[in-house]
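Exercise 3.2. Students should predict the tertiary structure of the chain below and write it as structure tokens, then compare their answer with the key that follows.

Predict this chain's 3D structure.
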Amino acid sequence: MDLKAYLSSRREMVDAALERLLPADENGGRILEAMRYSIFAGGKRLRPILCLAGAEAVGGDPAQVMFCACAMEMVHTYSLIHDALPAMDDDEFRRGVPTSHMVYGEGMAVLAGDGLLTQAMVLLSDPAETAGLDPSRVLEAAQVVMKAAGYVGMVGGQAVDLASENLRPDLATVQYMHAMKTGALITASVQSGAILAGGDADQVRQLVRYGRRIGLAFQIADDLLDLEGDFDALGKTVGADQARGKMTYPAVVGPAQARSMGQGLVDQAAEIAESLGPQAAPLAELARYIMARTH
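Answer key:
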């Protein structure tokens, strides 16, 4: 399949849906402006695309899970806003543009992140968006997403990340931290799409295995890009992890071994996707893309 064309078409679908679900409104004030600034600042839309592909992989209609895909992007964008704050990573650029706090100030950036997280919860429980879906599956998918975003997932991983700065790197901590910080939301993306689209227990279980592998591989690739990438491609400052004493895969095992680990994970993920049949071909190609990407 033509992965580039697939990603482009899915990005357009997601962007159109986000525009519908978070429209400009002069009554929304500066807070809505700040929320839209970050949500429409670009990005790969990987998590929403994984949600749509998860639905496709079990024979479902991706249009039916678009509300969940957009909720995933809102959760992810909120995390980027907060992660970039001076109290966290203190980044001036994300996605190639000034970060929210650089444009709107720290207080408004915190609120913009809060607003996007809350709007994601609104979407996941909106009767208009979930009409026609099995209510028990809607609830299950919402639980999956919010749990992955919380203290046993992304927020917990970020807390470990902060606590681990300038400590001696060790592999167990890095794997645990990134499985929560990055892997949990990526896994929830593909898992929630499959749940909403009617996937059976075995299909969902296989997609969770897939998600956990590409989640870790994605973080390995990010760690390597922070060492080897450039600002124009990444849209953010490179070398920041090393400067802040971050615990990363290359810091523990070296760049070559980290790359080998990441490649092994995406190979396993692609094999899992292929076992689900031709409708999961986009997931197999997405897995291979993880380690080949340049941003």
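Discussion points: Residues 3-292 form a domain with the Farnesyl Diphosphate Synthase fold (CATH 1.10.600.10). The first helix runs from residue 3 to 21.
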